[in-house]
């Protein structure tokens, strides 16, 4: 399943092989070249549909400026421009390796004039208050050490009636397919990643999904961070969850 990179280089997290921190930009540098293939195979191709749904939730209009956090190899940025060719996108990610792949894809698509990619962290966005029409982070929030601060930053830079969209993997805890989904997360995904990429870092995916807050708890965190929830929607039997919000109005 997708594991787009977005985290601070110096924040706490689980160590991985070779002393590289799980979820860090350095970890994603190691797997950047095989990242897209691994996403397709480990999600059975569903990651593309999940991204389409998340981008549609932004409610894009011509001229909108969108911030794509955890942009990784720029799949979300490209989907934004497929759905709204008159938009512009800024992508931010801590992994230089992932951004290098993303820039090649953007150049091949002839969209370098509409997308700019920068190395950076979700907890400290280099943008003014209310300067973007929408923010999206897909499969990256669980890699951010300080999620509350990152969500607060997302709310800060989004204009008053803009959209904040979070797309994140989920470990289903109920339902007929929940045991099968858990088996896939804990056994199939790490082995597939290790086989294709030759890296033990894909074990991080298993633990990061299991440790990520369930939808109710993440919704509470978003509210505390200044996000007014509009929608929580489970996708593919709860294997993925979509959260749509806008900046909360501050009462004087």
Query: N- to C-terminal separation?
Result: 43 Å
Please indicate the percent range of residues in DSSP E strands (runs of 2 or more): 15-25%
Number of domains: 1
CATH superfamily: Vaccinia Virus protein VP39
Q: Residue share in helices?
A: 25-40%
Total DSSP E strands: 7
Strand order of the largest sheet: 3-2-1-4-5-7-6
Mean pLDDT: 81
Give the biggest sheet: 7 strands, mixed
Annotated CATH topology:
Rossmann fold
Task: Tell me what the CATH architecture is.
Answer: 3-Layer(aba) Sandwich
Shape: globular
- Supply the helix-strand structural class: alpha/beta
* Name of the CATH class: Alpha Beta
* Computed Rg: 17 Å
Order of helices and strands: HHHEHEHEEHEHHHEE
Description:
- By secondary structure, this protein is α/β, with parallel strands linked by helices.
- The protein has a single domain, classed as Rossmann fold.
- It contains 9 helices and 7 strands, in the order αααβαβαββαβαααββ.
- The protein has a 7-stranded mixed beta sheet with strand order 3-2-1-4-5-7-6, with helices on both faces.
- A hairpin with a 4-residue loop joins strand 6 and strand 7.
- Helix 3 crosses helix 4 and helix 7 runs antiparallel to helix 8.
- The termini are far apart.
- The N terminus is likely disordered.
Summed up:
This protein has helices spanning 25-31, 35-42, 46-56, 75-83, 96-108, 147-157, 178-197, 203-211, 215-224; strands at 65-69, 88-93, 115-119, 132-138, 158-169, 227-235, 240-247. It is α/β, with parallel strands linked by helices.
């Amino acid at each position: 399943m997708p594991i787009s990179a977005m985290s601070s280089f110096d924040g706490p997290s689980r160590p991985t092989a070779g002393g590289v921190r799980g979820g860090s930009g350095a970890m994603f540098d190691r797997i950047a070249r095989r990242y897209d293939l691994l996403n397709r195979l480990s999600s059975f191709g569903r990651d593309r549909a999940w991204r389409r749904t998340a981008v549609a939730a932004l409610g894009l209009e011509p001229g909108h400026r969108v911030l794509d956090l955890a942009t990784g190899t720029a799949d979300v940025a490209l989907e934004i421009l497929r759905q709204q060719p008159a938009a512009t996108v800024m992508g931010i990610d801590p992994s230089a390796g992932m951004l290098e792949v993303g820039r090649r894809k953007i150049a091949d698509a002839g969209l370098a004039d509409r997308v700019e990619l920068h190395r950076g962290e979700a907890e400290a966005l280099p943008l003014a208050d209310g300067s973007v029409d929408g923010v999206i982070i897909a499969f990256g929030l669980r890699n951010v050490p300080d999620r509350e601060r990152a969500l607060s930053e997302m709310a800060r830079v989004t204009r008053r009636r803009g959209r904040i969209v979070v797309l994140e993997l989920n470990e289903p805890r109920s339902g007929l397919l929940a045991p099968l989904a858990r088996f896939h997360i804990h056994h199939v995904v790490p082995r597939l990643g290790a086989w294709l990429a030759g890296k033990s870092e894909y074990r991080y995916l298993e633990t990061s999904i299991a440790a990520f807050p369930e939808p109710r708890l993440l919704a509470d965190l978003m509210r505390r961070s200044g996000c007014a929830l509009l929608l929580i929607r489970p996708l593919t039997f709860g294997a993925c969850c979509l959260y749509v919000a806008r900046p909360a109005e501050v009462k004087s």
